Amino acid sequence: MQKKLRAIQYLLLVIPFLSFNYVLAEIQIDTDIINIQYPLNNGSISSGKILKKDKINSRVIDSSDAGSLLNYFVGSDNISNAGSSGMPVIHGLADDRIKVRVDGMDLISGCASHSNSPFSYIDINNISKLKVFAGITPVSMGGDSIGGTVIVDSKAPEYSKSSEIIKKGSLRSSFRSNNQAFGANINTVIATDKLYFKYSGNYTDAKNYSSADDFKVGATIVGRDWIDAAEAGSSAYKISNHLFNLGSKKGSSELNLKVSIQHSPYQGLINQRMDMTGNDSRSFNLKYSDKFNWGDIEARTYIESTDHAMNFGSDKQYWYPNNAPGNPMDSEGINLGFTVKADINLDENNTLTVGSEFQRYRLDDLWAASGSGSMSPNTFVNINDGSRDRYDIYGELTNLWEPDLLISVGLRYGMVRMNAGEVHGYADLNTYGGMTNNQKANSDTFNASDRTRTNHNWDLTALAEYIVSPTLTSELGYAIKNRSPNLYERYTWSTWTMAANMNNSYGDGNGYVGNINLNPEKAHTIAWSADWHDSKKDDYQVKFNPYYTYVEDYIDAVTCGEVGKSCMSRSDGFSTLSLDNQSARIFGFDISAYKNLGYYSYFGDLRVTSSLAYVRGRNNDTHDNLYRIMPLNLKATLEQNKGAWSNRLEVMLVKEKGKTSAIRNENQTPGYGLVNITSDYSYKNVMLNLSVANVFDRRYSDPLGGTYLGQGSTMMTGVKNGTAVPGMGRSFNVGVLYNF
To answer: Which domains are seen in the chain, by residue range?
Structure first.
């Protein structure tokens, strides 16, 4: 309660700053303000790639997970660790190594399993634009990350241009047959030339999905129900979101307040030993913007609080010996932020952007006693008053050196300060039932240590874009990016197998113990791109983008003994591991292309698009493969548009995954091919979406899905390693959108 009161006090203190017109600002490369005759490359390594609302509308029926939209970008993928809590992967770097900004807020997952990832806090129906920066990310697009940035924005306020009042809205409903997922969404808008109000709400309820074929043995869970051999246990979820958007505009000045409320009573975690049994989040996001003859200005303050609960869902054993009703785990997080930015037009060829950011994060992770056995009699304090404060300033200069040469250089300084309070195990003992668990020894060591850490991180990005000819554009970029560890990587302390199993955000089934002495990761990335296209950029395009990243102090899994910890051996195919700084290299390439095939009287407009992505990741110290590296994959789509109909035939081919992380016991996965068909029909104010996902009902394993832990006695040794998370079998999906 005290944290929430402090958060409200902070919000009241920073709101007056929004009345000032002269503040610093976040940098934004926007070539539209530069006076050139030929537009520079859109969707390049520097400007990012965009998926807009018209493309999103036809894809929302296939998934409720906002992160699933990443699958439509070459070199980017989504880790679907839960039904609506995907995690990003860009060029072999994943999760917290990617900055995810939702409506300008830098959100943080407040869960040991990352079941409330940033993508879970926005309804996929409300996304107006999703932008991906891969690797070479301008410093203005975020710090404290090394793999890229994902910008997720809901629709900006739309004011009337006269005294006329805007009244409009939309209703959407969808259904997916495989997991009986039902979703409903409503949007309502009323606006004048000065005031804007919007309400958006959604509800989604999904059952477990099924693989195309049996991928395990069917079983009856103790105290639970029967799980079929093809059913993916712990993949069901239910979630609702509400968004209130209030805007005010006077001249070029605009003030916008977004209030978001989320409630999720459960979300199964197919690759974790626990499930999410409750998540309630509230956020207030206040933004001020204005335009002047010298440039633009923007300031934002936000506060987001999360109450999160974990336990065993309906497909996992609930009662354990000594009358223990599950393993309740509760976390509470408070995330406060303040950002200011200014884009300054120095002259017609130079734009300077300067900015500052502040983020204050607090986390408590407590596990209440359960039963009268090893999980008693005290509350297990996993993280006590964990703090992570970040202070950033940056500047970026974009210069049109020649009419056909654009250069951008940016520098960011970030200070990250972390700390955590004293901890305590379930009991003041090192043994239970004759078995050693070292709870007291671990907590005593942790409490006696210096837990305060301060990191000084410098980011640098240099980009050059050159128009070689009207049909060829080339880019070259170099970046230094830093990321400090998160609270779970640094401050989880128990080597006890059961406790370590719960501290796992990787979905590999292993147990993890944090390391206070971790250094920030520092990534050096160099990337080049060549873009061949017709002079009008509407007939064909072929783009080749190779890249190389070397990461100093890469945070990877190690045996406990390597960092002076003592962890118990195991016989279930999993390991209890810790984390340490090593070094890694990642390299690969993206190839994307499209070609308009022309107009045919019977078929209409035809267009083919394709992409090929390859990435390779190695640990330089151990020569092990990096975890969760997507195999070589090819995507090809034939698009047809005629009248009110828009149809797509999609083919995805994925190579087998043989190069896996040995230290993490990662499962190999066979290659596979999928075919999807989608049709959209628009008539007046109605859009009908139809799709068949996995048309030929192909059984496959998700190369990024981790290890299947969706059923059984997951707390103890009741599950064994060796089964990869299965992909979803054939599903018939339908959606209807009505605009009014």
So the answer is: 2-739 (2.40.170.20)
